[in-house]
Amino acid sequence: MSILDNIKLNKIEDIALKASRVVMQIYKDGFDVEYKDDNSPLTKADLKANDIICTSLEKLYPNIPILSEENQQIDYEERKDWEYYWCIDPIDGTKEFVKKNGEFTINIALIHKNTPILGVVFAPVINKLYSAKKESGAYLKIVDNNNSLIIKESRLPLTKNSNDSFVVVASKSNLSQETKDFITNLSIFYPKLTTNSIGSSLKFCMVAEASANIYPRVAPTKEWDSAAADAIVREAGGMVYQYDSSLSPIDYIKKDKRLKPVIYNKQNLYNPNFVVVGSLEC
After folding, report:
1. Whether the predicted pLDDT of 282 surpasses 50
2. Domain co-membership, 74 together with 202
3. DSSP letters for 201-241
């Protein structure tokens, strides 16, 4: 029996919900904003959520190490030999949290060697919980307003986009010129292309559920920004590919054999630029 067999997805979902209740109280009450060395924002909600998630995971699975945005970073010489580890972003989209537009998520992923095999992404303001476990499917679960109970569950992908629509989802806070060019080139193939901008890992989830076809990201991200949602996309039939500027945007839609998936637990924790593509059936 593998480690994954011993991990219950609902327990990881419960941890995300538990963290979200504290996060939402801070969201409503107000908070100060600090800035890290890279000029990214930090609030007490990030730190409180991180403490709840890490403490809960350590209690349930003491032998699985944790890599989190808000923890002291672990040297590659130590983590390169990890077979399994948790990859955590306690609040993905802190900029959106600060703006109070609701487009932030709580992200928990389990990585096996260099591949995400379990992911939980919870958007507490909109009551949407996305989750997946390798070979068990990907799901969207609607949560009650107290962030306590799951009241509806649907397997992903949800719907098929109509033949005459093609939806690109893109970053709200970090839209590079290269990403804009990628979208412009796609519009040659899809004259009725539309673009939707949204924050955090919700972009991945839109592709997983098939409300968007593709998410190009030619701008910096870290592994914890993508890991949980990446697991959900893969289990929903899609893929997160490394961006290759020598290929045409249509090659990503066709899932060209030259494309390579994004991998994790690299020496450098920055992701490569990437393109998220949904299931071929959608």
Report:
1. no
2. no
3. THHHHHHHHTS-SEEEE-S--BHHHHHHHHHHHHHTT-EEE
